[in-house]
Write a structure and sequence with these properties.
The complex is a heterodimer of chains A (151) and B (121). With 151 residues, chain A is mostly helical. In chain A, 79% of the residues lie in helices and 0% in strands. Chain A starts with a helix and ends in an 8-residue tail after the last helix. Chain B has 121 residues and is an all-alpha fold. Chain B is 50% helix and 0% strand. The chains are: A mainly alpha (151), B mainly alpha (121). At the A-B interface, helix 1, helix 2 and helix 3 of A face helix 3 of B.
Chain lengths: 151, 121
């Protein structure tokens, strides 16, 4: 009688243990699957971060180039007024009409630069310009993207 | 009597558990919806009107005013010195650069947060 009870209890215990193992196995499988999907998600986030950093670096580089171009344009403008001790006032007295023509042309070019800076489309002539005589000297980097200044 | 008690007990159990059978569980789930894109068009480009500079010196002043009168323009000029002209040219160059910089920043922000043109839906 005792033997039978022990046998039944043993079988029941073994059955319960197997059930517990199966349940543990199911939990572990679910955990594994969750971990795998978490790793995939993390990898995606890392990839996105990498792309974002590259985009930010590129954008910063572009803006720095632009700021340097601005500095150079202002220096060039100053040079045009003061090159070789040039005095625009005296020149205007001596060669009034010629300087008036130059000033008007310069004003027209400067206005065009403002239009371009505000987002106007380039004309084919502006895009084609590669020679110094063809460019808009007020803002060559903006008006004539294909012009390479000689050093 | 014994059977009646059994039946009553069974009926009570069925009565009490009846409500929990067949009820659906409410599932709550969230869907991530991206924020609507602002998508403003870029500002319209400026179209500036042309203006004419007149250089006036002590020598040509009379001639300039005479020409203005002949052309039916009021003989009055708003003048600046050669030094101030340089300052004006510099100021305009700076305004233009600021405009260019702002437009550039706007484009970069748009590109970064909304992606390139081809990715737009």
């Amino acid at each position: 009688m005792i033997f039978t009870v022990l046998l039944i209890a043993g079988i029941a215990g073994a059955g319960m243990y197997v059930m517990k193992l199966r349940s543990d196995n199911a939990i572990l499988k679910a955990n594994q699957s969750k971990l795998e999907s978490a790793i995939t998600e993390q990898n995606k986030v890392l990839e996105q971060q990498k792309e974002d950093f590259t985009a930010i670096l590129e954008s910063n580089k572009k803006l720095n180039v632009l700021i340097n171009t601005f500095k150079k344009d202002l220096q060039d403008l100053d040079k045009r007024f003061t090159k070789k001790n040039r005095d625009i006032g005296k020149l205007a007295i001596d060669r009034t009409e010629a300087i008036e023509r130059i000033i008007n042309k310069g004003g027209k070019n400067a206005s065009r630069c403002i239009e371009l800076a505000s987002g106007a489309e380039h004309t084919p002539e502006e895009l084609k310009a590669t020679l110094k005589s063809e460019i808009n000297p007020e803002c060559p980097s903006l008006a004539n993207p294909n012009y390479v200044p000689y050093q | 009597m014994y059977h009646i008690n059994k039946i009553i007990a069974l009926a009570v159990i069925i009565l009490l558990t009846g409500c929990s059978i067949g009820e659906k569980k409410i599932k709550i789930f969230s869907i991530e919806k991206p924020r609507e894109k602002l998508d403003y068009p870029m500002p319209t480009a400026l179209e500036l009107e042309e203006l004419k500079w007149i250089i006036i010196t002590s020598e040509n002043a009379k001639e300039v005013f005479k020409k203005l009168e002949e052309a039916g323009i009021d003989p009055v000029l708003f003048g600046i010195t050669d030094k101030d002209y340089q300052v004006l040219a510099r100021n305009f160059a700076q305004i233009r650069q600021k405009l260019q910089e702002t437009n550039n920043l706007l484009e970069e922000y748009k590109k970064y947060y909304e992606g390139p043109e081809e990715n737009k839906q």
